[in-house]
Specification:
The protein is of the alpha/beta class. It has a domain of about 100 residues: Vaccinia Virus protein VP39 (Rossmann fold, 3-Layer(aba) Sandwich). The protein has five helices and seven strands. The mean pLDDT is about 90.
Length: about 150
């Protein structure tokens, strides 16, 4: 799935600002950082996972990653930062996805993209437009963008 995602994004993220909202293993955020993203903000609420991420970021010497220990929804509600790519892989049994979608439009830069991994297929809802989608086992993955109006 990760290879497909970065094929969709065009491989090179030079100069892009990325947000990894539920960082978990940190694979998506670190991959973005290694592909030239100018800044990657990784959000992780679990203290044990956060500590492991901190150590991995230090070991790999990623200077373009900012790791924050907080709830993803709270971050989106209080932040006014905009991102070119947002990675959204919340816990599958949670309702974070439904809660976050209305707020993410204002966090996405013009022409930005939202990548979603979830345990169920989501249909596009305004103002979102699904660009690509796939499925691997019980995991659905989709790339969305805001509808463009002239």
């Amino acid at each position: 799935m990760r290879e497909t995602l970065f094929n969709w994004l065009g491989q090179d993220l030079t100069g892009k600002r990325c947000l990894d909202l539920f960082a978990g293993s940190g694979a998506l955020g670190m991959e973005a950082a290694s592909r030239g993203a100018s800044a990657v903000v990784m959000i992780e609420n679990n203290r044990t996972v956060y500590s492991a991420l901190q150590e991995n970021i230090r070991k790999l010497d990623f200077h373009n990653i900012a790791l924050r220990s907080e709830d993803g929804l709270k971050f989106v509600l209080r932040s006014n930062e905009q991102f070119d790519v947002i990675f959204l892989d919340p816990p599958f049994q949670s309702d974070y996805l439904e809660k976050l979608l209305p707020y993410l439009a204002s966090r996405l830069a013009p022409e930005g993209m939202l990548y979603i991994e979830s345990g169920k297929q989501f249909e596009s809802v305004a103002p979102w437009h699904m660009l690509k989608s796939g499925q691997a086992g019980a995991v659905y993955y989709q790339l969305w963008q805001l509808e463009q109006h002239d």
